[in-house]
Every structure is written in C-alpha cells, then in structure tokens.
Amino acid sequence: MAAEGERTDTDVLRLLRTGTAAEHEAVERSLDLLDPGLDRLRLVEVLGRLHGFWRAAEAGLDAWAAEHAADAAAVTWPRRRRAALFAADLGVLGAAPPRPVPELAALPGTGAALGRMYVLEGSTMGGRFIDRHLATLPDLADTRLRAFSPYGAETGTMWHGFRQAVRAHVADGVEPAAVVTAARGTFQALAAWCRPLARTAASR
Ligand code: HEM
Q1: Closest of 105, 92, 21, 33 to residue 63, by C-alpha
Q2: Cα gap 92→94, rounded to integer Å
C-alpha cells in the first residue's frame, strides 16, 4: 500500500493534469501548432502571443521569488525563465515581440507560484512534439527555435525536478488546492489570451 504522503503527492500531480485538461485542449486548439500548413507568419503570431504571456507570468514569479528566495532557488526558478527565448525566436524569424501582455492574478505564496509554474513547465512536454513537427515543414526546416523545447536533452530531468519540488512542498504542508487553483486560473488566462488566434477550419 502506498504511504500517505505518496498518495497525496500522486494526487496533486494527477489533479493538476485532470484539473487543467479542458484549458490545455482549448489552448492547443487555438494555437493549432501541429497544423501541416503552419507557416512563418502564423508562427510569428503564436510566438508573439506566447512571449506576452510569459512576460506577464515571469513578472509575477519574479515578485514571488524576491519574497521566497529559498523556495525559488529550490525549484531552480532563474533557469526556467523563458520570455527572452521567445523574443530571440521572434528575432530569428525577423519579427519584434509585440508589447501587450495579459493581466494575471498576483501570487499569494509558493503554492500558487508552483501552480503557475506548472503551466509554463508542462509546456516543454508538448514542446518536443511541436519542435519535431516544425522540423518537417519546408518553410522552417532550417530555422532553429529555442523556446518550445528550452532544455533540450534535459527536458525530462527539468520536468522531474519540478514535479519533485511540488511533491516536497505538499509534503511540507502546502495545500494541493492552492496549487491546482492557481494552475487552473493561469491556464484559463492563457486560453483567453490565445483565443483571438483561433481559426475556423474554413480559414486555414
Ligand atoms: C499546440 C500547442 C501544444 C501542443 C500540441 C501540446 C501538446 C502536449 C502534449 C502531447 C503533452 C503530453 C506530453 C507527455 O505526456 O509526454 C502536453 C503536456 C502539457 N502541456 Fe501542452 N501542448 C501545447 C501547448 C501547450 C501550452 C502553450 C502550454 C502552457 C503554456 C502547455 C502546457 C502543458 C502542460 C502543463 C502539460 C503537462 C501535463 C501533465 O502531464 O501534467 N501546452 N502538451
């Protein structure tokens, strides 16, 4: 039988996945990055949108990190910052990052910060599929982008480290509900932010 802590740990990670599945699907649908007809113009549009979201999310996480330095160091927060990579990718495609950013809720503590970070870090899972798809597109075959898969061969290690940090905090008393609520709120904000990019089948 699993130990109590273990059962709770499994629950928070499972709850994060199931509790945000609908929002993830909405984002995936709006971005439509696995479209075989994806071109540079569309990619610039998507990267610009994601850059704005990362900027807003990172501003909140930087404010949290300033107040909770040990928690931020334990989850290697500075290494996980990625807005600059989105900006660099836009540069590679000859575009500048657009200015607008979404308004995101403040992060009242480490539980909420981990929930927000879950959304950002989990995207490296899908990022591997996205990069693989981009490599098959003649228009983009020679273009090396960094932001979708920022950790390269270390993707699994970084994701494992993040999950361990969530486990450790829940074992230390962080409420799983605080993590899941922040993750869901973050994903809902992302889904709303990406909705203007959604295309109808007829417009592709
Ligand atoms: C069109 C774009 C996207 C596609 C095709 C996609 C696809 C995927 C896939 C296939 C997985 C599962 C990978 C695995 O289990 O090995 C995944 C996981 C995940 N993705 Fe996405 N994704 C996309 C965009 C995003 C974005 C923009 C975010 C957030 C910023 C995001 C957040 C996540 C999270 C949090 C997980 C981890 C779920 C879990 O295991 O707990 N994804 N994605």
Answers
A1: 105
A2: 5
Residue 9: predicted pLDDT? 44
C-beta of residue 32 within 8 angstroms of C-beta of residue 195:
no
pLDDT (tens digit, 9 = 90+) per residue, 130-167? 999 999 999 898 899 999 999 999 999 999 999 999 99
Contact 191 CB / ligand 1 (< 6 Å) = no
pLDDT < 50 positions in the chain:
1-6, 8-9
Cα of 105 vs centre of ligand 1, distance in Å, is 22
Q: Point out the ligand 1 atom lying closest to the alpha carbon of residue 50.
A: 27
What residue ranges define each of the domains in the chain, with the CATH number in brackets? 15-199 (1.20.910.10)
Q: How far is the CA of 27 from the centre of ligand 1 (A)?
A: 9
Q: Is the CB of 180 under 6 A from ligand 1?
A: no
The DSSP call for residue 108 is -
Q: Does ligand 1 have an atom closer than 6 angstroms to the CB of 129? A: yes
